[in-house]
């Protein structure tokens, strides 16, 4: 290859080239993304989600305060989940910033700002062949998915799905950049980028196990993005896998080792059909309540929640056509590309920039489709689909461009002139406008930043401390109350979660975890309390297993700013 040719390739993939259009992807673009996310977070209000009340707050408290040596799974099976992503929020609530809930929401919105930045970078590669320049078209492509019913309602919340999406999108972006480095004959840089991609993907799985659906899709993306024969593609997947194993070992290794030593299963009660700890039932503990009940339903699923539905892919009511539009457009792109390839075999070769963009389109479409299929078969829970949702604008734009190309007498990517690109962008803007009108966002629990019921005025998290007698035992008869535990002040207090048979086994089995909890409760001789949301509606099954009875007259409210119903009752 001549020096002139090599110089041309470098220019194509240089992200800040002098002839590149749009704005440079620098800190100013990131701040703009963060500002937009912060505006949404402030409009939505303070997060009071069920997950925050159930385990996001208690789990990191238990880890930092050494409660694992004292308590018995107050958050039930969710106690076993990795607490790493909850650390920043917990530290904010332990600082003076707890009295500044709006500021904390703005800080929490930074994750969504980063996700928007990464989505724009991927869109830049797809539309322009370069990641480093943002144009109005790429920003519009990103907005299509970022405004979806999975992503937008989580901005500023503690669900942690947006953080996982940042890691997954970062991995996909690294694979696309690695392909560009290979084109520029920078083999060592390409290797580093694939290792980074694997590292990010492995960290995503280690920090939240539901992200296991994305590594196979990333592997497929690595195969498609890599140019060359079978050996080069296998090497790319191997590099990705090495980075993934390292990322998972770093993030989940210590936590899994701790759970393995304590419970005989590195995932606690989850996946016990594989590890078969005698403490837990030999089942996978997978939530199957949102899975489609037939193949026909599975094929039509995106169109079902495109209309107003309840309990389809989330418990709250929602309507969002973005997946229906995006996946239909994805299949349309595949069909049109195949038709154009076979009907017009003598298409002149596109430019280097067009080839980079075309490869990015193929890679993103393959990643999106593979992720969706795996997600549909394992969860069908919309919150876990954010890495797919934010990319849905890409197939819509690509399908509109393919349709316009099909109308031209001279096919091929060389025909992707400025009028065609403007037409594709206009079609995407129309789809975004229609989707925005139709969308009904799920009502995740939120409260105003200043709530009249708050015991200490405006705060991120506030619970009125309640002193308890020495050596008290507090049994949590119901989920979503463990966040109160740090505020029940007593020397040597212990917290115990209700051992339900679906994850703790039956108390009649002496080897089960439920039997261990029952034994600890029976041996207790000090003051005893129960913590629950409503004395008229609590986990009666767990109370019966532990032989707990209490007088409703003994219950008193625990003032807090996350929920209106938490009661502390005396237990005989």
Automatic annotation (TrEMBL):
<feature type="transmembrane region" description="Helical">
    <location>
        <begin position="29"/>
        <end position="45"/>
    </location>
</feature>
<keyword id="KW-1133">Transmembrane helix</keyword>
<protein>
    <recommendedName>
        <fullName>DUF2029 domain-containing protein</fullName>
    </recommendedName>
</protein>
<feature type="transmembrane region" description="Helical">
    <location>
        <begin position="162"/>
        <end position="181"/>
    </location>
</feature>
<feature type="transmembrane region" description="Helical">
    <location>
        <begin position="240"/>
        <end position="260"/>
    </location>
</feature>
<feature type="transmembrane region" description="Helical">
    <location>
        <begin position="323"/>
        <end position="339"/>
    </location>
</feature>
<feature type="transmembrane region" description="Helical">
    <location>
        <begin position="106"/>
        <end position="127"/>
    </location>
</feature>
<keyword id="KW-0812">Transmembrane</keyword>
<feature type="transmembrane region" description="Helical">
    <location>
        <begin position="217"/>
        <end position="233"/>
    </location>
</feature>
<keyword id="KW-0472">Membrane</keyword>
<feature type="transmembrane region" description="Helical">
    <location>
        <begin position="360"/>
        <end position="375"/>
    </location>
</feature>
